[in-house]
Design goal:
This protein is mostly beta strands. The chain folds into 2 domains: 30 residues, no CATH class; 277 residues, Neuraminidase (6 Propeller), CATH 2.120.10. 6% of the residues lie in helices and 45% in strands. It has 3 helices and 25 strands. A hairpin with a 5-residue loop joins strand 7 and strand 8. It is globular, with a radius of gyration of 22 Å.
């Protein structure tokens, strides 16, 4: 099944267009524009739906699904905020394991907000209510937790983490919800620096809520305003692109060709080469009007979308000119 959207293009007023050969020949600039146009033709992104996974998963139905991440082996990890549980699924929706429940123990969470398994080996969970990052192995066995020590410098401490990301070097990036910034921690667990504090001249963040790795380099941040900001590995500002959203910003995914952001009822796409945007509605994607988009994940040219009922949609990304 194929989904696309209609994107308006500025064609100009009729009076602005050349009406005959004389007008075209009379302007060298116009001739140049006509010759170049085919070379910069804008690409259109298409989403071909491959599959839909629907609960219950092994007898379990999420009550408040909030986040989704995918391992390199295509195992899905579904986070339910209300039950404070994580469920590991196959790419066909078969439940393999589950961990969690409300609390502060090693296998419990309090208002968890996000999770990430970039390496495929370790799963990191932003345990918002317990002011910590929990590290599990891919089978959901507890390994460690990260908290800010009482004597940590204020500019290197975090609280109320909203998102977490591990990069290829093993470093951690934490969306520090208590201080509106991102904190980088080394693979050895040492806090290195923070960046993106609200009020900075460039790349300032307001309630950073999602972190995703760039396929080439750096990290992308989605904040509560719907702004997507790209930083390099050292916290240096690269670029910023506000998403045109309807409703609350929720999910972020980064693919080589585009930045993807979902809100309650729309999927916004920014094509990184042509620097143009597209918007997909619930109807465009084949979602029911009663559903809300909750989170996104990208893996190997495929986009995964989690909705508020716990259903997971799998799309193939295709670009055509």
């Amino acid at each position: 099944m194929r989904f696309t959207n209609r994107r308006s293009r500025n064609r100009g007023r009729p009076s602005d267009r050349p009406r005959n050969s004389f007008q075209i020949a009379s302007s060298g600039l116009t001739v140049l524009a006509l010759l170049v146009l085919p070379l910069i033709c804008t690409a259109q992104l298409y989403l071909d739906r491959i599959a839909i996974l629907s609960p219950p998963y092994g007898g379990y139905s999420p009550s408040h699904p909030i986040a989704l991440t995918i391992s390199p082996e295509d195992h899905l990890y579904l986070l339910d905020a209300q039950s404070a549980t994580i469920t590991r699924l196959t790419d066909h929706g078969e439940a393999i394991a589950q961990i969690g429940g409300p609390g502060s123990g090693s296998q419990q969470f309090s208002d968890p907000s996000d999770l990430n398994i970039y390496s495929g080996l370790d799963l990191f969970v932003a345990d918002w209510g317990n002011d910590r990052i929990v590290r599990l192995n891919r089978r959901l066995v507890f390994l460690a937790e990260y908290r800010s020590a009482d004597n940590t410098s204020p500019d290197l401490a975090f609280e109320q983490p909203l998102s977490v990301l591990q990069n290829a070097r093993g470093d951690l990036f934490i969306a520090d919800g208590g201080n509106d910034r991102v904190l980088k921690i080394s693979a050895d667990g040492e806090p290195l620096f923070s960046f993106g504090a609200y009020g900075d001249q460039k790349g300032s963040l307001f309630q950073p809520m999602r972190l995703e790795s760039d396929p080439v380099a750096g990290v992308w941040v989605l904040d509560a305003r719907g702004h997507t900001v790209h930083f390099d590995e050292f916290g240096g500002f690269v670029e910023e692109q506000p998403a045109e959203l309807v409703g609350q910003a929720r999910g972020l995914a980064i693919s080589p060709e585009a930045v993807w952001v979902c809100s309650d009822s729309a999927l916004w796409v920014w094509e990184r080469v042509e620097r143009t945007t597209q918007t997909f509605t619930l109807a465009d994607l084949g979602l029911p009007n009663s559903a809300l988009m909750m989170d996104l994940a990208w893996r190997a040219d495929q986009l995964w979308l989690l909705d508020s009922r716990g259903s997971i949609y799998r799309f193939e990304i295709r670009a055509e000119r």
